[in-house]
Amino acid sequence: MGLMPVLTRAAVNGLETGVLVLLDAVLLAIGIHWRTAWLTRSTPSGRLKAALLLTLIVLTRTDAALLLAGLGLWVLPEAVRLGRLAWRPLAELFTLPTLVLSSYLLANRLWFGAFIQISGLVKHAPHTTGRLLAFAAVAVLAGYIGWLGQRRAGHAVTAGRFWRLREFTAATAWYLAFCVLLVGYYLLLQTQQWLWYFCPLAVYGVCLAVLGMADFAEAALLEAPATQTPDRALAPVAMILRNDFAFFECASAAATAASPVVPIKWHLKADELNYIIADC
After folding, report:
1. Hey, is 152 helix, strand or coil?
2. Count of Cβ atoms closer than 10 Å to residue 20 Cβ
3. What region, left, alpha or beta, does residue 125 occupy, with left being phi > 0 and alpha being psi -120 to 50 degrees?
4. Half-sphere exposure of residue 94, counting CA atoms within 13 Å on the CB side?
């Protein structure tokens, strides 16, 4: 990395990224627990702690305003069902981060003549009709993702293929919608796109990868014979094949069984093959 300053700047120059990743991970953990009941399943102290967490996220990155908007729309159906009873939990959850964000924007306006920071203004792309319509389409897509999540999150799933992934994506559809908005904002309305701008996507992707591997491992254990130990059920599959269709067939079968694949050159000698297979 020291020999590649351009790559270093593009990937790790956002010093706030490390803090934001941790804060977002905690927020996702809360979302998994509260699902579609942020106002009723939580306690007043829990909502105040979540509000403090949202405030820290806003202070870390101002584009977290999109996250606040997405989460606000996520709890809106629950608030409608509660009626007047929703005012207090809504205030506990959103007052602090909204006040902090509003104060920050107002201070920028008073001191520098613009609501957002100057570094953000100089990166603005021209707001042409085409760009605005494209971003509106992205917003519609994000809303559709949240709507699907709302429908699915009301029904808990603890079995079936990839049930962990389905449960996670349903309970955190608001965050996925935020990620879609974030990508649309930077790609359509900004002229510079650094990798750390998209770190929320990385957080979500890591969660999906971990849960996907857990689902694969569970599938392999369930489909393995009862007499087979877990280490054997999850053992890699060594493939000594030519580059033809049989390779893809075997790789697909191994993936179905949640087993990693170790491709080995077919023209190696016997002692070389034995060494590689023994080390799998």
Report:
1. helix
2. 19
3. beta
4. 21
Q: How far apart are CA 246 and CA 242, in angstroms?
A: 8
13 touches 195 (CB < 8 A): no
Helix %, strand %, coil % of the chain (to 5): 75, 5, 25
Phi-psi region of 235 (alpha: psi -120 to 50; beta: other; left: phi over 0): beta
Residue 34 identity: W
Structural element, H or E, at residue 106: helix 87-112
CA distance 2 to 96: 41
Angle (CA) 210-211-212 rounded to 5° is: 90
Q: In 3-state terms, what secondary structure has residue 59?
A: helix
Please, is 157 exposed, middle or buried when counting C-beta atoms within 10 Å of its C-beta (0-12, 13-18, 19+)?
middle
Q: How far apart are CA 171 and CA 156, in angstroms?
A: 9
Is the distance from CB of 107 to CB of 117 less than 8 angstroms?
A: no
Residue type, 83: G
> In the prediction, which pLDDT does 1 show?
39
pLDDT digits (tens, 9 = 90+) for 70-122: 999 999 999 999 999 999 999 999 999 999 989 988 888 888 777 777 666 66
Q: Quote the pLDDT of residue 157.
A: 62
- 3-state SS, residue 255: helix
| φ and ψ of 3, to 5 deg | -90, 0
